[in-house]
Amino acid sequence: MAIIDRIKFDAPSDEWLVWKYQTNEANREEEIRIGAQLVVNQTQEALLVKGGQALDLFGPGTHTLATGNIPLLRKLINLPFGGQTPFTAEVWYINKHAKRNLRWGTRTPIPLIDPVYNYPVSVRAYGQWGIRVEDSQRLITQLVGTLRELRSDKINDYFTGEILQRLSDALSKYFVEKGVSVFQANARLNEFSQFAADAIRAEFKRFGLEIVNFNVESINIPDEEKKKFQEVLGKRMEIEQVSKVQVGQAYTTARTFDVLEKAASTEGGAAGNLLAGGLGLGIGLGAGVPVGQQVGQAMNPQPAKSDGEDAMTKLQKLKQMLDAGLITEDEFKTKKKQILDAM
């Protein structure tokens, strides 16, 4: 049986996150001697485990393994050899250096409903993230288990699924809470990155990991969906414009009635004389249609039609409206010019 009196591990690369100390493969009966030296490099921690129970955690430096500085060890072993008793145990080395260059990205688009346009879209996203081991003991017990090593690529593979699952919820929540369209997402990447990091931080902490950076570098929509949305949006805008025109016409008619009603109630005024002069404008509810038509025609003259409404008649009506105070001098001149230009 070989006895180990010095334990040290130099990681072959910075990609390693957790290493289980390897004894001599040719002699699997090696044991650690009480009094052995445990060497822990900078940015490392070493966790001593026996029988599945964590005995102690050691930071950078050289440590002498003794029952005096490992209280739990005294309870787990006997001391028949004058305090030099060899014992079996596992030594895990943990890299505490932050890993900032890990990548994540959606494998398939995430389906969302755009809160601004109320339109279904599928979004893709990708970015960069970084972690640091915050709780070595929790990482070993919760994630590593019986593995002999853990590298950052394995962490990336495992947690990318966790990231994307929570990212989908974070995307929906963010756009709804902020009232932002998915099509404006790339203008708010910094803000969304912080929002998403807060949403996933608790899951990493559960495994003893700390999020040191989380960046969303792009949120995009497939080109075919974007083109389809543009077509739908164009049609929607056309419908809205038609609706606005209809509302505008209704408003113009209503305002015409208001003006004429006011003019008719003015005794002895020019407008009263106009209405009493038999101009065909009419008074009362039944005359609403001819009133709207004639006032609208006078205010918005159209080019002469083939059947030819007399321009003189339009000018006379326009002059009568000026005299009645229904239009201003500037409006009279503008409409007069339009009528004459259309001749």
Q: Could you explain how this protein is built, in words?
A:
With 343 residues, the protein is α+β, with helices and mostly antiparallel strands. It has helices at residues 71-76, 136-144, 152-178, 189-205, 223-264, 270-276, 288-299, 311-323, 329-341, and strands at 3-7, 16-20, 31-40, 44-50, 53-58, 61-64, 86-87, 90-95, 99-105, 110-114, 119-133, 149-151, 209-220. It has 3 domains: 3-95, no CATH class; 99-221, Band 7 domain (Tetrahydropterin Synthase, Chain A, 2-Layer Sandwich); 252-341, no CATH class. Helix 3 (152-178) crosses helix 4 (189-205), helix 5 packs across helix 7 and helix 8 runs antiparallel to helix 9 (329-341). The longest helix has 42 residues, at 223-264. The chain is rod-shaped. Residues 274-292 and 304-308 have low confidence and may be disordered.
Unreliable residue runs:
274-292, 304-308
Q: If you consult CATH, what is the topology of the largest domain?
A: Tetrahydropterin Synthase, Chain A
Q: What does the overall shape look like?
A: rod-shaped
What is the residue-averaged pLDDT? Answer: 75
Name the CATH superfamily assignment of the largest domain: Band 7 domain
Q: If helices are DSSP runs of H or I spanning 4 or more residues, what is the number of helices?
A: 9
Work out the count of structural domains: 3
Give the CATH level 1 class of the largest domain: Alpha Beta
The proportion of residues forming helix, as a percent range, comes to 40-55%
- Compressed to H and E, one letter per element, the order equals EEEEEEHEEEEEHEHHEHHHHH
* Number of distinct beta strands: 13
Query: What class would the helix/strand composition place it in?
Result: alpha+beta
**Biggest sheet, in brief?**
5 strands, antiparallel
CA-based gyration radius: 42 Å
CATH architecture field of the largest domain? 2-Layer Sandwich
> What portion of the residues fall into strands of 2 or more residues?
25-35%
Strand order of the largest sheet: 5-4-8-2-12
What is the first-to-last residue Cα distance?
117 Å
